[in-house]
Design goal:
The protein has a single domain, classed as Proaerolysin, Chain A, domain 3 (Beta Complex), CATH 2.170.15. Helix content is 15%, strand content 45%. Strands 1, 2, 3, 5, 8, 10 and 11 form a seven-stranded antiparallel β-sheet that branches. Strands 4-9 form a two-stranded antiparallel ribbon. Strands 6-7 form a two-stranded antiparallel ribbon. It is elongated and about 75 Å long. It starts with a helix and ends with a strand.
C-alpha cells in the first residue's frame, strides 16, 4: 500500500511539474521596436502605376454661376508592405501595433544602412497597408449657368523599394533581435486632369 501511494505521489508531482513547464513555455515573450534603418536596393527598377480615377460630373441648372471644389485624392491611397526574410520570426515577436515612416524617396538612401525619418506613418506589418499620400490639394472650378462640368483624372503612382534592418528589444530580458527585409510601397508621382464644359439643353 505504501509502495502504491509513493508511486501515486511521484506521478502527480511529475505531471504537475510538466504542466508548470508547459505554462512557462506557452507564455509568449513581448518585444518592442528599438530601431529601424534603411538602405538602397540594387537594381531597383521602379515602375509607374497608372490609375484612372472615377469621372465626376457637376451640372448647373440654375441661372447663376456654381462653384465646385474637387479633392481628387480623397478616396485613393498608396500602399506599404514589409517583407521580412524571417517572416515566421517576426510574427513570433508578440509586437504591439507599431507605426513607422518609410522612406518614399529612394534618392535619399545609400548603399549602407542609415537612419531616415519623415513622411507619413504606416503600420509595421507584412500584410499590405494603406499609405497616406504626403501631398494634398484640391481644385476649384466655376460651372457656368445651364452647363455641366466633366472632370476626369489619371493618377500615377511610383513603386518604390527599400531594404531595412530592424532591431527589436525583449521587454523583460533586454535581449535584442535583429531582422532584415525588403519594404515595398507605392507613392504619389503626379496627377493629370482634364476638364470639359458642356451646355445643357
Amino acid at each position: 500500500m505504501k509502495k502504491n501511494l509513493s508511486y501515486l505521489v511521484i506521478t502527480l508531482c511529475f505531471l504537475s511539474c510538466n504542466g508548470l513547464e508547459e505554462t512557462f513555455e506557452q507564455q509568449p515573450k513581448s518585444f518592442e521596436l528599438a530601431e529601424i534603418r534603411w538602405k538602397r536596393v540594387e537594381n531597383d527598377n521602379s515602375e509607374l502605376v497608372q490609375i484612372t480615377l472615377p469621372e465626376k460630373t457637376y451640372s448647373n441648372h440654375s441661372n447663376t454661376l456654381m462653384e465646385v471644389e474637387i479633392d481628387p485624392l480623397s478616396e485613393t491611397r498608396g500602399s506599404s508592405t514589409f517583407n521580412f526574410v524571417d517572416s515566421i520570426g517576426f510574427h513570433k515577436l508578440n509586437l504591439e501595433p507599431t507605426h513607422i515612416t518609410p522612406p518614399t524617396n529612394p534618392d535619399l538612401l545609400s548603399e549602407s544602412y542609415s537612419y531616415i525619418s519623415g513622411g507619413k506613418e504606416v503600420l509595421l506589418a507584412t500584410e499590405p497597408q494603406e499609405l497616406p499620400f504626403s501631398i494634398h490639394f484640391s481644385d476649384s472650378y466655376t460651372v457656368p449657368a445651364h452647363a455641366e462640368l466633366i472632370y476626369t483624372a489619371t493618377l500615377y503612382l511610383r513603386e518604390v523599394k527599400s531594404g531595412f534592418s530592424t532591431k527589436f528589444k525583449e521587454k523583460e530580458s533586454g535581449v535584442f533581435l535583429e531582422l532584415e527585409g525588403l519594404w515595398q510601397g507605392t507613392v504619389y508621382e503626379r496627377l493629370e486632369t482634364s476638364i470639359i464644359v458642356n451646355n445643357l439643353e
